[in-house]
Amino acid sequence: MYATDTASQSLGITISAVAPGRATATMTVTAAMLNGHAIGHGGYVFLLADTAFAFACNTYDRVTVAAGADVSFLEPARAGDELTATAVERSRRGRSGLYDVTVHRTADATVLAEFRGRSRSSDRPILGEHGQDGSGAVERR
Asked: What is the pLDDT of residue 58?
């Protein structure tokens, strides 16, 4: 999935761990990610949390997308901060899932945001017979 995730790649987001219902993503806040108050724009913090959520809820070989999400911003991010988002599955019933993501500053573990994502799974497998992601595209290295 990461091979075709140009949004995450272009922002320098890396995925450091993936397990059933869990994922960890990291990103360094750059000057281009600051808002008019010279703090990290909430949209980028949300995007990092959403990326960890996406990787966590796509661990069951079914294409799964966000049905909705909420975020609470608790502390600001600053330029140069490395942020870590850890997603954990809380519930999965049928095609619906509920995931919590905590975003913290890697250096001191200060929690910056709490995110709750709701997922919806399709019947389409991620690992299809025509390519690694089921799209027919073949990952090239």
From this structure: 96
Sheet holding 14-19, edge to edge: 14-19, 22-28, 82-93, 96-105, 111-121, 64-73
- In the block, residue with structure tokens 């090239």: 140
Look at residue 24 and give its three-state secondary structure. strand
- Assign 59 to helix, strand or coil: coil
Whole-number Cα distances in Å, 95 to 10, 33, 120, 121, 131: 30, 34, 5, 5, 23
Tokens matching residue 132 = 């690694």
Phi/psi region, residue 121 (left: phi>0; alpha: psi -120 to 50; beta: rest), is: beta
Cβ atoms within 10 Å of 10's Cβ, excluding its own:
8
Identify whether the C-beta of residue 89 lies closer than 8 Å to the C-beta of residue 22: yes
Give the Cα separation of 112 and 27 in Å (integer): 13
Query: What is the pLDDT, as a whole number, of residue 71?
Result: 98
Residues (pLDDT < 50) of the chain are 129-131, 133-141
